[in-house]
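Hello,

Our lab assistant flagged a job as stuck in the queue for most of the afternoon. It eventually completed. Since we weren't sure the result was trustworthy after the delay, we are filing this so someone can double-check. Below is the sequence as submitted and the structure that was eventually returned. Let us know if re-running is recommended.
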Amino acid sequence: MISKKRQKAIKRKSVNKTIFILLSVILILAALTTYTLINRADIKEEVVENKDLLILKNFSEPSTIIMYLPAVDNNGSGYITTLKVEAMSGTGRTLVDINSLLFWEDTQQSIRKAKGIAEKISQINTSNVDLIYTISANASLIGGESAGAALTIATIAALENKKISDDVIITGSVNHDGSIGPVQGVLSKAIAAKEFGAKLLLVPLLQSREVIYESQRHCDTINGFEICTTEQIPRKSNISEEANIEVKEVGTINDAIKYFIK
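-- returned structure --
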């Protein structure tokens, strides 16, 4: 027979064991709760961080964009060239095929900027996309930075596999932040765009009107001798009126692309 003293000891031991088990359960639940909250915070933070990550895209077949670029030749006359941009699954290569285009370094830099800006705007990672640029131009044409805006828009359309309007033409350089910079020869390009059949010409800000300098020969008679000089006479020009084509100013690629992709 167990003595009362022994019974009390057993009972006390049982109570202590129960308390120990309850405390262990509480500690385990607290740890699990903390772990869950931490994990949820990590997941939430990861989702926020992943919002700006570019998506990868696979092309079952090449996406091809044809666009028309205004240029100016050595004589100052406007001319329309053809740009083709192809996007296809690959290894992130940029391939360029330019036929007799002057100022190759400027054009190369414009293509580099166009690709980077197009990637940001479209949110498409080009590390698994090959882009092929083909520009067909007359040997006397001057290329360069003025094709930057068009190159960027064509690249975005190719990456997104979207069609663009073929009656809209743009001239403008492109900056790293997607803003559109000034160019030269806007009136000559506008006339060429009109003759080509375009309905709308997009130009950089403040370039729908420009000052045209016309060469005039002026002669004076001094001490019986005729002395002649060639002077540059300024004349204000409204591009839309002189070229008979609608002209709109655009400040960024996002502003301009709305006219091309509907």
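-- support follow-up --
The delay was a queue issue, not a problem with the job. The result is valid. The chain has six helices and 14 strands. The helical segments are 4-50, 104-122, 148-160, 186-196, 239-243, 253-257.
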